[in-house]
Records
---
Amino acid sequence: MDIQYIKERIALNPFASSFHHFASIDSTNNKAKELAESGFPDCTVVIADSQTSGRGRMKRQWYSPKGEGIYISLILRPSLPSSKYYFFTMLPCISAVEAISECTGLKCGVKWPNDIFIAGKKTGGILTEASLKYDKIDFIICGIGINVNIEHFEGQFLHPPTSLFLETKEKTAIEALIASFINSFYNHYKLLLSKNGEDEVRSIYRTYSLCLGKKVRLIDGEKIIEGKAVDIDEQGYLLVKCQDENILKFSTGDLFILD
Ligand code: BTN
């Protein structure tokens, strides 16, 4: 990976000063957590060419072949209450959508809460983990995986996978996509911390949301619910209107868009 190219492209943002690249690592989220626990600052980035134990939500694996995908984890230390944690799933989602669009022209969207979808298939995912102290955020790790130049997928997938290559039939420059993602993320992070920023971030996330107004099935542990996804509220909950007109709120779960 051409690290110099990435550093030049992100020179104007603080992620350039705490930038850690590994050829191979178990999981960039594990490494970022270790660095955060030993005091690394806000806006630290960990990148790998491949991961041997890439992790997804719900203890799933993340397919991480060498040089064919993006594997990034960001350390953030915002002075915010724990209740704002959900924004750190929104920020990487909207930044990934914008970076993919800038670098490939592809139109993709977000399947609540953390999946990047193109044409009904999953091309990226976000794994956000936090260390909370009382009701405050101590640090947050935002982990982002994007399937860039993968031609064949191995393993089992909850949602059919795709890659930017399979959608465009062209290879995308990994370094350009990483730089675009980090720049977009930093802009949205600043926006979040600015006046009225929370409303703006929520509104951008809603704009990129693929499920709103659609019939959905949500699997949350033992519960399976079907209804219409009507909104994402002020606390980041997905609101689903069931057939009996009741509106149920979800903070997590596996969502399937039915129409
Ligand atoms: C999901 O879709 O369930 C989330 C996938 C998140 C994968 C990324 S790759 C970089 C970072 N390191 C990990 O081990 N996981 C995240």
---
Amino acid sequence: MTKSILENELFESFANASDNIYIYVCDMQKDLSRWSKNTVDYFDMEGEYIESAGPKWIEHIHPDDRAAYLKDIDAVFSGASNRHSCQYRAKNKYGDYVWLECKGSVISDESGKPLVFAGLMTRLDNQNKYDPLTLLLTSYEMQKYEFSVGSGAILLLGINGFRKINNTNGFLYGNKVLVALSECLTKLAGKEDRVYRLQGDEFIVLSPSGSKEQLSRLFEKVNDYCMNIRGLKSFSVSAGLVSYPEDGTDFNTLMSNLEHSLEYAKEQKQGWIAEFSEKISKRHLRTGLLHEALIQSIHNGFEGFELYFQPILDAKTKNIVECESLLRWKTPDIQDATPYEFIKILEDSGEIREVGTWVMKEALRHAAKWQKKYKNISVSFNVSYIQLLDGEFIDKLISTAQELQVDPRLVMVELTESCNADDTKMLSHQFNKLQKLGFKIAMDDFGTEYASFGLLHDVTMDVLKIDQKFVRGLIREGNMTDMSIIENVVNMCRQLSIQTVAEGIETEEIQDIIRSIGVSFLQGYLYSKPVPAAEFERMVEAERN
Ligand code: C2E
Ligand code: CA
Ligand code: CA
């Protein structure tokens, strides 16, 4: 009996669920309890199974918190309550008190006799002094620092592509990277400096009486160090930099200025450092303004959003055979937001999912119309990686095509920002589902990230769009590099039966070179900029009459 209660499979799976959750289950008749392995380790308990654990656990609890804990737990064991819920501090193996939220409940038999008491304790890391993984101070401790007295500088570091590092190598490997970086910072920081770990992959070096120049140099050294850590693949960090009192005199202002600077640095170039400035502050304000206006537009039935269409020509005949749908957005107050600008905001906030579904429906609505009117005109539209993280989008695309009776062979999905695609198995699965029905899949902006070749290996593509930067570089004097890149990509695609599109064709000269290389389709301002649907129709009709 005891065995079956304590040896539950659910216990195993919950016990391994998270690093900061501790599980226990107690057979109340025998007063024998079982604790998850991470509890035993972190709180230095005598073993996984403990008899009469109650008084032993009390020893761990901070003396100031014991009364409240006992009151709550006594109510459970006396039968007055069947739920235990309280917050208290408990001593860990390092001798430090950490805040826990403890919730448990009692299961009784039919006669009301209590059988099992089970629950979990969540470590409230944002209230704790030390981060248990790296043993560095937490942001909770940093908040207590007096920034209003004295002057100094602060560096905020973030690991580039940490989500990808975690996803491709596993959670434990990710932890090793965090520990290695914390060791590096402790080693390289000055004697007076304080190093903190914030949530996730961010770290702070606070230099009381230090300067921005000193911290910039530290940043360079950290990046050199991260290139060569034994047992780890090289990685890099980006950083934001402030000084106080110039950039703020309280924790919240300084943190927010640091976060904006780090964000700016990452956008410029990974492995970059950005000093807080007026420009960064203005940019942040604009992002906030645009984001609010975007949400308003979405709430008002996607008011202000519109699709433009850019013709794509068959390279042999130069006839319009396809068009790319490109999103535009304007409000009475905001007329100048570029797609790069507002789509990034939608991607960062996750709202690209809603807007992307609207784009897909609009694109298919036009595809349905043009399929009847013109025959054989394909419509492509852009899809961000995060839209594909759940299968819902693909299912909606399939059902919308069915409802509108669109021939899937005339619909193409362009995967943008493919460099962020870390779950290629999922992508491959979802794309195969579409390809079986006849939909076409294109990889956008090929060549902008090294990951593109890897993706090509894992995911079957129908079309590859060669990035504008190679195409536009073609006529630069003596530029053989772009020429040979395009030639090789086109040859490789031919062998793999993948069609190619050259984007960004602006001149006859480039067009002629591209055609001679054997690219399948042409797109660019030479033929037309993206235009509203009615204008695109006029273009097709002019060509056909
Ligand atoms: P993209 O998918 O690479 O789209 C091609 C971009 O190149 C378009 O910019 C187009 O106007 C521009 N372009 C085309 N031909 C030429 C040319 O000859 N010269 C030059 N200089 N530019 C040319 P646009 O419309 O500003 O879109 C920018 C990006 O925004 C797109 O790049 C795409 O990544 C993203 N985007 C646009 N619409 C959507 C959408 O509905 N969903 C998502 N997720 N992303 C979108
Ligand atoms: Ca595109
Ligand atoms: Ca592109």
---
Amino acid sequence: MTPAQLTGQVLAAYASPRDPRLRELLGTLISHLHAFVTETRLTPEEWLTAVRFLTATGQTCDDERQEFILLSDVLGVSSLVDLVNAAEGATESTVLGPFYVPGAPHRAMGEPIGRPQDGVPTLVRGRVTGRDGQPLEGATLDVWQCASNGLYDTQDPEQPRFNLRGVFTTGPDGSYKFRTARPVSYPIPVDGPVGDLLRAAGRSHWRAAHVHAIVSAPGHRSVTTHVFDAGNEYLSSDAVFGVKDSLVRTFRTPGEGDPEDVSYVVDMDFALAAS
Ligand code: BEZ
Ligand code: FE
């Protein structure tokens, strides 16, 4: 038997699912997996190493930690899923990450989401619109980020629950603003199998500094995205391939008409596609 004959046999065995999408996914998955083994002439030892790696990845998961999603992130698969599902003309999406917590408090427009000791005071502001540029009233921004020590509230017993998190709702002009700390770079968790992979590959485990946002509006597709700091050193080596040029913004010092209680101002508009 040749490798091609075996691949043909396996494909035929999985060709009958009634659901056409399942048929397509299984067929394509088998073709690519078999091509990988054939092309690389994978040895039994290498195959066993891969099985052990995936087993350890599963064993590292619990209610709070999802090592498989982290693996998908560092292989660029999470970002690729985002890309192939992107809506043209809408704000680009990027990875959700493991630190999102639903249920953050609703805050008044302009209110700080954190404490003075969380970092350099920064105003984030902009507008939520449709793809046509029309303002969206009643859009919500669910935002979160880490403190200047590189830790999210869920990782840091010194931070109160829901620190550096908040939900804002736009008024008739679609505008929003909130005060926060200028975000910093931070390392992704590397004490598990994903860390072993990054070290073996000689890759950086740092995320480029960012503020997370999930932007939603009635009748529109939500976007899960980031605002990246243009001055950050990890933009081109982000551990999870989350950086998209359209999401990078300059954190500038306040000018005329800007509030005086912050050291930086960043403008970021979001456009949503109709659902
Ligand atoms: C984050 O930005 O919170 C994140 C995303 C992917 C992996 C680790 C962290
Ligand atoms: Fe993050």
